[in-house]
Amino acid sequence: MRVPDDTVLDLAQLEEITMNDEELMREILGVLLDDTGSQLLLLDAAVQAADMPACRRLAHYSKGACANVGAGRAAEVCRRLEQHATNGEIAACSQSLAALRAELDALRQEVNAALKDESPA
Q1: Largest Cα–Cα separation, the chain
Q2: What is the four-CA torsion angle of 49, 50, 52, 56, rounded to 10 degrees?
Q3: Cβ–Cβ contacts within 10 Å for residue 103, how many?
Q4: Which of 41, 53, 93, 115 is at a distance of 20 to 30 A from 87, taking alpha carbons?
Q5: Alpha carbon of 84 to those of 46, 47, 76, 81, 106: distances in Å?
Q6: pLDDT tens digits for 51-106?
Q7: Of the candidates 37, 96, 100, 76, which has an alpha carbon nearest to the alpha carbon of residue 29?
Q8: 49 in helix, strand or coil?
């Protein structure tokens, strides 16, 4: 499913893939946040080591994870990071990594707000 590039978190897409199962949505979002945090550390290490093949693989993995749950902007940044790594553009990878950190922060805020809105009263 194609995610609009300007969407921090497309809840409609997430609701569709979870069939509106709130518990499953919470689990998926929790795993996404944990996983992207770990991937960010690995990406940082790969960029610092100028390991472009590892950077490309990690960016590709993160792109898919973000796109699958509707995190469009983060997926787009990962796509650009993957392309820069493929081209061996270390400086551009560093810039994209900084952009990815910002997008993941925005995603974390969006997820926290979404989970708070769906909490039982």
Answers
A1: 51
A2: 60
A3: 22
A4: 41
A5: 13, 11, 12, 5, 22
A6: 999 999 999 999 999 999 999 999 999 999 999 999 999 999 999 999 999 999 99
A7: 37
A8: coil
CATH architecture of the domain covering 11-113: Up-down Bundle (1.20)
Q: Could you give the percent of the chain with pLDDT greater than 70?
A: 92
Q: Per the structure block, which two tokens stand in for 110?
A: 């969006």
Alpha carbons within 13 A on the beta-carbon side of 97: 23
To 10 degrees, the CA torsion angle through 106, 109, 114, 120?
Answer: 170
For residue 42, give both structure tokens. Answer: 């690995």
CA–CA distance, 113 with 6 (Å, rounded to integer) = 18
Single-letter residue type at 107? L
H or E element at residue 118: none
CB proximity list for 80: less than 8 A, separation 6 or greater: 96, 99
pTM here is 0.87
Q: Among all chains, which residue has been given the structure tokens 């945090």?
A: 37
Q: Helix 90-117 crosses helix 72-86 at what angle (to 10 degrees)?
A: 160
